[in-house]
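Re: How this chain folds, sequence and tokenised backbone to follow
How to read it: Take the token row as a discrete description of the fold.
Start of record: The labelled sequence and token lines come straight after this line.
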Amino acid sequence: MLPLQNAAVPHMRHFSARLSTFSDRTKFNTRADPEDFAVAGLYSINKEDYVRCFFCGGGLRKWEFDDDPYLEHAKWYPSCSYIINKKGPGYVNKVARESHRMATVCNGASSVNRTVSHPMNNSPKPSPTVDFQKYVQSKDETASAIASSIAILQQLEERKVCKSCRKCSCNVVFLPCGHLCYCVECSETIYNCPLCKCAVKERIKTFVG
């Protein structure tokens, strides 16, 4: 799990707050319900069908009927900690790879018609003004950005693997240092944390909900 701190729009971090922004359902000609947008971390700014992620600040518009808010969020902003925590690195990695494949087989300019806007800076307060200047990435720019995101996701998946057996997932926290780097079986033979050399006084098994 990645830390969810310094959200771009802190007052939209609650599901109910995001859901309340979708008062005009007619702006969104999609199969997805307002709940689907809100649970994907997105809220409406009440300007046409513009939505933004409360955490990364990334914006999306021009929704089509069969669009999936989770998938579009992951496709355009694969490094967003919120979407990685909600769907997992595996899901985001799969979406990024598929987008990379589609960008590779397309000729000329990118055929993607999704309009995106630059994420806002991760600051304690939301930006007082929102710039929705439209841009469409070229095929090379899209492929490069996705490849970079895939590398980040691979690193995240690597960090989840037990540092000893390299097979099981890390699921034991050492106390008092709080480091998470071993599975249950391997942790039983560790008496000093390999990361900080602190003596291990207690082992706590963790669970991913």
Q: What stands out?
A: Residues 139-159 form the longest helix (21 residues). The domain at 161-209 is CATH 3.30.40.10 (Herpes Virus-1). Residues 107-112, 121-139 have pLDDT under 50 and may be disordered.
